[in-house]
């Protein structure tokens, strides 16, 4: 079955309620309740996260990584990590972590597709955070989370309708995911009550259109994707214009990037990606 026809079937399954997008882990839902309660704080959040060994270990690793750590003091417990990050940032981070660690399938071919999606989002997260530090128009921690979340529609669809995905061959699966991942990513982050900026990013990245929000976060991720593609890295679920110089790419122009910015990001990629791989793998 062709990807276009299968995409129509999958949309209908969601419309009829026969397919549902993944839900957040219970621990993340509990943290959301705590963050909304002004009478509670870091210790309450830490207690909930500690009940999920995968989340707690990953939060500590990230809090001590170059991605988020400030100063030389090692963060040794969850309460310290949450105080460093803040409650709302911790909640957003937990949501991003969940897309990397808690969305899974049994089929080995689809597992490989999830790993490819995860690897690519880690690359984008590293590059986006570094580029945001250079240009100053986007908060670096927000840029990092954006890199983890912008393609969240890919694992969401794979985990929601794995039987439909396996009906396609390798390239057909990617064509199907390219058609669906923006709308499903936006829907998922809406369900997960993420900030509007992340919902817009998941829904509109990679497309120059009249209804595209003029937000620096979307331009940042698109600029990073273009840069990755120009260095020979395949974009598994998005496309960029071929034969265009990076400095003429609209998101790059809107951010005011130059060759020095782009070269600096290339230098950062290898070490930064290795660090994130150690955290999430």
Helix-and-strand structural type: mainly alpha
Number of domains: 2
Number of helices: 15
Low-confidence runs of at least 5 consecutive residues = none
Biggest beta-sheet profile: none
CATH architecture of the largest domain: Orthogonal Bundle
The fraction of residues assigned to DSSP E strands is: under 5%
Radius of gyration over C-alpha positions, nearest whole angstrom: 19 Å
List the secondary-structure elements in sequence, H or E. HHHHHHHHHHHHHHH
CATH superfamily of the largest domain, please? Answer: Hypothetical protein af1432
Ends distance: 34 Å
Q: Which topology of the largest domain does CATH recognise?
A: Hypothetical protein af1432
Overall mean pLDDT score? Answer: 89
Specify the helix fraction band.
Answer: 55-70%
DSSP, total strands: 0
Rough outline: globular
- The top-level CATH class of the largest domain is Mainly Alpha
Describe the protein's architecture and organization.
The protein is 68% helix and 0% strand. With 281 residues, the chain is mainly alpha-helical. It has two domains: 3-20 and 108-280, Hypothetical protein af1432, CATH 1.10.3210; 23-102, no CATH class. α4 packs across α6. The longest helix is centred in the middle third of the chain and has 28 residues, at 108-135. The mean pLDDT is 89.
Q: What is this entry, summarized?
A:
The model has no long low-confidence stretch (mean pLDDT 89). The protein is 68% helix and 0% strand. The longest helix is centred in the middle third of the chain and has 28 residues, at 108-135.
């Amino acid at each position: 079955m062709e990807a276009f026809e299968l995409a129509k079937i999958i949309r209908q399954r969601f419309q009829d309620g026969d397919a549902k997008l993944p839900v957040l882990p219970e621990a993340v839902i509990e943290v959301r309740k705590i963050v909304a309660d002004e009478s509670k704080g870091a210790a309450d959040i830490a207690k909930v996260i500690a009940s999920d060994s995968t989340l707690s270990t990953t939060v500590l690793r990230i809090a001590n990584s170059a991605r988020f750590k400030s100063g030389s003091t090692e963060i040794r417990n969850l309460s310290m990590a949450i105080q460093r990050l803040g409650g709302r940032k911790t909640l957003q981070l937990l949501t991003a972590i969940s897309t990397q660690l808690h969305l899974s399938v049994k089929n080995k071919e689809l597992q490989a597709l999830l790993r490819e999606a995860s690897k690519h989002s880690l690359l984008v997260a590293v590059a986006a955070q570094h580029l945001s530090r250079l240009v100053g128009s986007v908060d670096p921690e927000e840029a990092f989370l954006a890199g983890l979340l912008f393609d969240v529609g890919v694992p969401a669809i794979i985990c929601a309708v794995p039987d439909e995905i396996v009906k396609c061959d390798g390239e057909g699966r990617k064509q199907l995911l390219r058609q669906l991942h923006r709308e499903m990513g936006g829907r998922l982050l809406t369900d997960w009550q993420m900030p509007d900026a992340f919902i817009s990013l998941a829904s509109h990245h990679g497309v120059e259109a009249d209804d595209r929000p003029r937000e620096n976060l979307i331009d940042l991720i698109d600029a990073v994707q273009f840069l990755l593609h120009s260095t020979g890295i395949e974009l598994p679920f998005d496309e960029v214009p071929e034969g265009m110089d990076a400095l003429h790419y609209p998101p790059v122009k809107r951010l005011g990037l130059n060759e020095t910015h782009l070269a600096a990001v290339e230098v950062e990629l290898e070490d930064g990606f290795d660090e994130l791989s150690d955290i999430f793998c």
